[in-house]
Amino acid sequence: MLQCTAVTKAPPGDVPDAPAAVAGGPDSPPDAVTPNHLPFLLCELGEHDDAFPEHAAYLRSAGPSSAPALWFFWTGAGLQRVNRVDTVPWCPAVLRHLGTGVVQRCAFFDRHPPPHSWSVTDPLGDLIAERLLSGDGPDTS
């Protein structure tokens, strides 16, 4: 399934306050999350419909890998947009590759709409990665 194409501008009043929602509080955030770092947020979920109208963008982990993570959620657009920043647990689903023994965890939050992250493809990200690997990317010398 393709990745959702919803994008939103990070609101200046919500995202800077996000470290307060992280375990450890605002006095010890690992990295500040500011609109300068995240001017736009892209929904990371697979394409979804009105049954789950909320879009979601991962901001950062709130501690060890088992700790909940900080996510930005929004619905609507323009003046009708409603958003929230919340710390939510990770999805418990795992995909086990029997041939290799590799275990892949879902990279979304618990109770997200289907599918799991390993079934979501980002064609633009894939195209950029393909060009960089083939040497057709921008010259960085």
Fraction in beta strands? 15-25%
Number of helices: 1
Query: What is the succession of H and E elements?
Result: EEEEEEEH
Low-confidence blocks of residues: 19-36
Which class of secondary structure composition applies to the elements? mainly beta
Question: What would your notes on this structure say?
Answer:
The chain is 9% helix and 23% strand. The chain has 141 residues and is mostly beta strands. The protein has a three-stranded antiparallel β-sheet, with no helix packed on it. The chain has a two-stranded antiparallel sheet with strand order 1-2. It has a two-stranded antiparallel sheet with strand order 6-7. The longest helix is centred in the C-terminal third of the chain and has 12 residues. The chain is globular. About 13% of the residues have low confidence.
Task: Set down the secondary structure blueprint.
Elements: E1 7-9, E2 40-42, E3 55-61, E4 69-75, E5 82-88, E6 94-96, E7 103-105, H1 123-134
Antiparallel strand pairs: 1-2, 3-4, 4-5, 6-7
Descriptive keywords:
single chain, mainly beta, 3-stranded antiparallel beta sheet, two-stranded antiparallel ribbon, about 10% helix
Quick take:
The chain has 141 residues and is mainly beta. It has one helix at residues 123-134; strands at residues 7-9, 40-42, 55-61, 69-75, 82-88, 94-96, 103-105. Residues 19-36 have low confidence and may be disordered.
